[in-house]
Design brief:
9 helices, single chain, mainly alpha, 182 residues
């Protein structure tokens, strides 16, 4: 009987992985073609890695990220649009998982701030034209733009945490059929 349960668990993990992969690709694809809300769609696509981690473990989350990146480069017509997913949003759930395993909240925030600073520096200095596209920023100093970007990433992390908590409380613990919107 134990083998049957393990088979069911593996089958469930594979099925969930397929669903999460499909949803990730849908949001990444949409982010590559829908103007104005690209980053929002990439942010939503990043949540499915967190779902895989919660349901099947970190290894499954890593496999989902790699599969989504590879499949995205095959299916998404605008290959440059994959850069935000591959270099930040896709693996953020994995990174968040490991950072939040640290015992002290202060250390977690400090590491996240350092990571965000690196991402913003690389993003603004190396990929500014690609990430911003036709958006014209005033001639603010790069440091101000990096600080603003870090603040936005802290908001993103907070919303990401809220959505994970929603998933844990409303979907995972109750089951999707028992979900109430109250």
């Amino acid at each position: 009987m134990k083998n049957n349960n393990q088979g069911k668990t593996k089958t469930s993990a594979i099925a969930l992985g397929g669903i999460c992969l499909a949803l990730t690709i849908v949001f990444v694809f949409a982010g590559s073609i829908v103007p104005g809300i690209e980053l929002t769609l990439f942010a939503i696509s990043s949540l499915f890695v967190a779902v895989m981690i919660m349901e099947s473990g970190v290894r499954a989350g890593i496999i989902l990220y790699v599969a989504a990146a590879l499949l995205g480069f095959i299916l998404v017509p605008n290959k440059l649009a994959m850069i935000p997913y591959v270099f930040f949003f896709g693996y953020y759930g994995i990174l968040k998982y490991y950072i939040e395993k640290l015992p002290k909240g202060f250390m977690q925030v400090l590491i996240k701030l350092a990571f965000y600073a690196v991402v913003m520096c690389v993003g603004l200095l190396a990929f500014k034209e690609l990430l911003l596209g036709s958006i014209s920023l005033p001639d603010y100093p790069t440091a101000i733009l990096i600080i603003a970007g870090i603040a936005m990433m802290l908001v993103y992390d907070y919303i990401y945490t809220l959505l994970i908590n929603f998933y844990l409380k409303r979907i995972k613990n109750r089951g999707a059929d028992n979900m109430k919107l109250s």
